[in-house]
């Protein structure tokens, strides 16, 4: 089978089990591009916490640098002080909204283009 373009696989996602409101949280996303080229569109990598409320951030990860091979991406977000405490699912998406969506090579995709990558507790 001939491969064309990009083909992103989520290798791992590392995150803290608990996060305090008003603090900065760092996560590490490992992506493998098993395709033969990078993505040429400047799509944002988005992350959100979904629980009683939903909080969404557009990361500063530059996805056009995801060349064939493995790429480690540090994602940093500031958890708002107003965020309610409780359990939250962590989800990521590539594009979406005003941008076209790109998909990861996994069965974990929700209908809306988001991918669940973990769960954390907001304290």
Fold and architecture overview:
By secondary structure, this protein is mainly beta. Helix content is 0%, strand content 49%. The chain is built from no helices and nine strands. The protein has strands spanning 8-14, 18-19, 24-33, 45-50, 54-58, 69-78, 86-95, 101-102, 115-122. The strands form two sheets. Strands 2, 4, 5, 7, 8 and 9 form a six-stranded mixed β-sheet that branches. Strands 1-3-6 form a three-stranded antiparallel β-sheet, with no helix packed on it. The protein starts with 7 loop residues before the first strand and ends with a strand. The mean pLDDT is 92.
Care to give the gist of this entry?
With 123 residues, the protein is an all-beta fold. 0% of the residues lie in helices and 49% in strands.
User: Number of helical segments?
Assistant: 0
- Structural class based on helices, strands and sheet pairing: mainly beta
- Write down how many β-strands occur, each being a DSSP E stretch of 2 or more residues: 9
Q: What percent of residues are in strands?
A: over 45%
Structural key phrases:
123 residues, 0% helix, single chain, three-stranded antiparallel beta sheet, elongated, six-stranded mixed beta sheet, mainly beta, 9 strands, 49% strand
List the helices and strands and how they pair.
Elements: E1 8-14, E2 18-19, E3 24-33, E4 45-50, E5 54-58, E6 69-78, E7 86-95, E8 101-102, E9 115-122
Parallel strand pairs: 2-9
Antiparallel strand pairs: 1-3, 3-6, 4-5, 4-7, 7-8, 7-9
């Amino acid at each position: 089978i001939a491969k064309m373009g990009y083909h992103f696989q989520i290798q791992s996602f590392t995150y803290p089990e608990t996060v305090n409101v008003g603090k900065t949280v760092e996560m590490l996303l490992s992506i493998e591009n098993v395709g033969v080229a990078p993505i040429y569109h400047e799509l944002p990598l988005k992350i959100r916490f979904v629980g009683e409320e939903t909080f969404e951030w557009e990361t500063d990860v530059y996805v056009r640098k995801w060349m064939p091979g493995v790429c480690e991406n540090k994602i940093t977000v500031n958890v708002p002080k107003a965020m309610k405490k409780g359990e939250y699912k962590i989800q990521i998406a590539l594009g979406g909204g005003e941008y076209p969506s790109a998909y990861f090579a996994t069965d974990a995709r929700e209908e809306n283009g988001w991918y669940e990558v973990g769960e954390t507790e907001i304290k």
